[in-house]
Specification:
single chain; alpha+beta; six-stranded mixed β-barrel; 14 helices; about 55% helix; elongated
């Protein structure tokens, strides 16, 4: 194996007497460099776009959320709240109430979700950074809300408009057979501010105090639909879940940020896999050049192979020479490609030179060793298969030649 490696290394760095062979080998190496660099840059760009897209929802979604296992609401007592705060790794918590409501303002109306929050909500979610116009909720005054830009545009809402109030209504929970009275509970509120997160979220939520939501929905003061948590990184989720199940009287489930957006994360993972396989096909096409280069090298070194056989080199070792040569082309081409593409990605991260067309926003990329390993492993795996296919049957031919020589 040592002899085969040394000869393969010499073949790799030496030039053939035929110019066309040298050009074929150089082109094969060049295509491996390009395919490797392309795959790494594309995966880094997709990770950048993924993080950029998730940054909007991550600003709004908590690290964990406790939800009722059955029904819409559950009881959350001060004792349970203190028990959660005492758990190692839990930074802040806030109970919330969420319910679909009917909004009306002057002649316009829209369906949205009312999210009633406690004063601690700003410790879990940095809502102050999301307010574009006006202010966050004033918890001393219960009849005030914060709406999204999408809702404000649809209803023509203004901020601090005390002449016209936003009307919020929900259906009453009436007993069967009772039809008397108004079918809706409704309350009027003043819009304190407008938030902006993303197009979908801006059209979905209206924030209010938890007291306002409980009064509108006719709930007890300890009834909530969820509890949101801010935690430290690498918190022991299993222990936290066990504590929650022991402390809460009603059955609840602990939901992570990824589980809150399961459909979004599933879609992003599928897109990542699709991009990986598409550009892996590009790499496979590039490796056909390696196969062609190895076949040409075998033909070019026929005379030298006869000499090696005469010197006592085993036919299997001659096969290994060209197999190692093919792996070397992939290895050195992959290393060069990854060095060049890593430089491009790191340069774009630190000193952006590519911007999203029509904007001053740098094109997002993320350098990760996971992508580095995946690209190199993919190249070496496919490259080894290509070298095996290009040199298939070579040792049998050499054995046959050795017998008849």
């Amino acid at each position: 194996m040592t002899v085969a490696f040394r000869i393969a290394l010499r073949y790799f760095f030496s030039k053939s007497q035929q110019t066309v062979i040298n050009r074929i080998n150089a082109f094969a190496l060049f295509m491996v460099v390009v395919a490797t660099a392309t795959l790494f840059i594309v995966l880094s760009a997709f990770d950048g776009l993924k993080d950029f897209g998730l940054s909007f929802s991550n600003r709004f979604d908590p690290d964990f959320e406790i939800q009722p296992a059955q029904g819409k609401f559950f009881t959350f007592s001060p004792e349970e709240q203190q028990s959660l705060l005492n758990f190692p790794g839990v930074v802040a918590i806030s109970p919330v109430i969420e319910e679909k409501v009917f909004l009306s303002f002057k002649e316009k109306s829209q369906v949205a979700y009312l999210k009633g929050v406690s004063e601690n909500y700003s410790s879990v979610i940095a809502v102050a950074d999301l307010i574009m116009i006006g202010d966050w909720l004033d918890f001393q005054e219960t009849n005030n809300v914060v709406a999204g830009f999408g809702i404000a545009a649809a209803l023509s809402l203004g901020v601090y408009d005390y002449t016209s109030y936003l009307n919020i209504a929900v259906p009453k929970k009436q007993e069967a057979g009772v039809f008397s009275g108004a079918p809706f509970n409704q309350k009027a509120a003043t819009v304190m501010g407008l938030y902006q997160i993303s197009e979908d979220l801006d059209k979905k939520y209206v924030f209010s105090s938890a007291d306002f939501a409980q009064q509108l929905l006719g709930l007890d003061s300890l009834k909530y639909s969820a509890v949101v948590l801010k935690t430290r990184p690498k918190i022991d989720r299993a222990a936290l879940q066990k504590t929650i199940q022991q402390q809460f009287k009603s059955p609840v489930v602990l939901v992570s940020r990824a589980e809150q957006n399961a459909a979004l994360y599933r879609m992003l993972n599928l897109e990542n896999a699709a991009i990986y396989f598409i550009f892996t096909l590009v790499m496979i096409i590039a490796l056909f050049n390696v196969i062609g280069a190895l076949i040409m090298m075998v033909l070019d070194k026929k005379k030298q192979m006869k000499i090696l056989l005469a010197m006592g080199v085993a036919p299997r070792d001659i096969h290994r020479i060209f197999l190692i040569l093919g792996i070397m082309i992939c290895f050195f081409g992959g290393v060069i490609g990854l060095i060049l593409s890593s430089g491009v990605v790191l340069l774009q991260e630190t000193a952006p030179f590519i911007y999203v067309p029509g904007t001053s926003l740098p094109y997002p990329v993320v350098f990760t060793f996971k992508n580095l390993f995946n690209v190199f492993f993919t190249l070496m795996f496919l490259g080894t298969l290509s070298a095996l296919w290009a040199t298939r049957g070579l040792h049998r031919k050499m054995r046959h030649q050795a017998i008849h020589s």
